[in-house]
Amino acid sequence: MSIKNLSQLNYEIFMDWGSQPSRAVMTVVYFLKIPHKINEVRILKKQNVSEQYKKINPDQKIPCIIDNENFFLNESHSIMRYFCQLYGDNQLYPDDNLKKRALIDSYLDWHHSNTRKMHRMLFKKLFEPQLGIQTSINIEELESDVQKALAFIENNYLNHKNKFFFGFDNYTLADISAYCELYQSKVVNYSFQPYPNILEWMSKMQQINEIKQTHKVYDELLNKRIQKQSSKL
């Protein structure tokens, strides 16, 4: 694609600020300064299973994107990779270091079956009752799986002092995806005290402007939820 055509692209982004993958995509969008329009699809209001949204994304999940050339793409990590390659970013997903990119990909693949269990645990504890659904997921097993995932991150991905994932000097897509997932635990005041490397890394990530921008709306929604719960006591 030529630079001229690239400059003419803009995107509709279908997302929910309460969704970790949505926030990861938006962090990349802000980092790359991509022209966009946000269309919120609220999961807790079941808007993602509406007939209207099904016409946009038959998979009925978020996030997804559509550009003004009618190109559609879903799955957060695919969207993040696509944006980085399209706009030629060399920090988040380097195109000049195949080994570094392979390491980032290895985490992004690992994330789904491991770090992502934080979401499943929170969903089981908090949102199943609100949505009026019940699954057979064992919460004790989930909590154990989350602890194993955190221990692996602590001792493998973040085992370099004052560095980002894999000992890199700069954060990448791996850091963004992991941070957005772990930050969600704020809703239940999950303690990361047993994981000092994770705590140090999260403190660094919180200073990044695009991370602040992405999580501002989520924090506002969370505060409203806390106030609502407090008013019922």
From TrEMBL:
Transmembrane found in the keyword field: no
Q: In this protein, which residues make up the domain named GST N-terminal?
A: 9-91
Task: Return one GO MF term.
Answer: glutathione transferase activity
Q: What is its main location?
A: cytoplasm
Q: Where in the cell is it found?
A: Cytoplasm
Transferase as a keyword of this entry, yes or no, is yes
Give UniProt keywords alphabetically: Cytoplasm, Transferase
> One GO term of the cellular component aspect?
cytoplasm
SUPFAM superfamilies given for it?
A: GST C-terminal domain-like, Thioredoxin-like
Q: Name one GO biological process term.
A: glutathione metabolic process
- Enumerate the spans annotated as GST C-terminal domain: 97-230
Transmembrane region(s): none
Spell out the Gene3D superfamilies in the cross-references.
Answer: 1.20.1050.10, Glutaredoxin (3.40.30.10)
InterPro entries assigned: Glutathione-S-Trfase_C-like, Glutathione-S-Trfase_C_sf, Glutathione_S-Trfase, Glutathione_S-Trfase_N, GST_C, GST_Theta, Thioredoxin-like_sf
- Protein known as: Glutathione S-transferase
> Source taxonomy lineage?
Eukaryota, Sar, Alveolata, Ciliophora, Intramacronucleata
